Amino acid sequence: MKAEFPVWNPWLWPVLAATYAGEAALHTLSRSMTASPAEPVGPEPAWATPHAVRLDLPSLRVREFSHRAGRVPTLVVAPFALHGAALADFAPGHSLVESLLGEGLDGICVVECKSAIPSMRFLSIDNYLADLMVVVQELGGLVNFIGLCQGGWLSLMFAARFPQMIHSMALAGSPVDLAAPSAMVAGTRATAPEFFEGLVRSGDGLILGQRALDLWGVVSPDPAAAAEVLQVGQNALEDLFERYRQWHQWTVNLPGSFYLEVVEHLFRRNELARGEFRALGQVADLSSVKAPLFLLASTTM
């Protein structure tokens, strides 16, 4: 039976496979990964708001949407999952960047983790934290963080490791304390680690986003499904639905080492919330975060 949850997250879909298909089917699914295309489908999603690339680092790039010297900049850390970071600036009227600019914030930048290529397959969480350190230093050494979903736990790790660099922090839909009841976490812990390792091997060291999407037979969403996600009527502009279709079908790849670290240290062991996760050589102690913190959560996935 196919899962009814929205398949947008490579931490989620193997767990749903285990839940709905059973352990025996997982091996069939793993073998089928090699038969799916490895390249994204269609053009890379466009960003809605004019901007410039401020930094281009090995694992990520920084898009700058506004700048004013002397003000604490706001750094949005976008999700690094199945789809692209343009989600943070999806379309006019559907853009976090646009909303922040409308509230008069200055120095707005978005961190976009790059789709992994074979030379990036051994990148770890530490690599992303180190590049994030370069970003914060480039922006003056003190920032307001906004972490979206997977970008939230990465932001929180950074804040716990370098609290003096955080002016304030907002986390939206970010998995932090994975001891909370969750079918996704329970499924991850019930699935043999060898399965996740097999997924990485099938992608020659990467988690290939297009194969993950195709594995579930996810088709381009129809206008009714897109309207529900975007919370608009079905008579909305056709351009909005086309943007959503392009964003949905264009996927990113993840470094295998990074992926396996997240599965093991966060989803299985809950090390960040337990105060045991080692970030750049030291334990990331959440109690060291003294900056104002705002958490936005949802009652449903």
From TrEMBL:
Domain of life per record: Bacteria
Gene3D superfamilies xrefs: alpha/beta hydrolase (3.40.50.1820)
InterPro entries xref list: AB_hydrolase_fold, PHA/PHB_synthase
GTP-binding is among the record's keywords: no
Keywords carried by this UniProt record: Plasmid
Name of protein: Poly(3-hydroxyalkanoate) synthetase
Species assigned in the record: Microvirga terrae
Source taxonomy: Bacteria, Pseudomonadati, Pseudomonadota, Alphaproteobacteria, Hyphomicrobiales
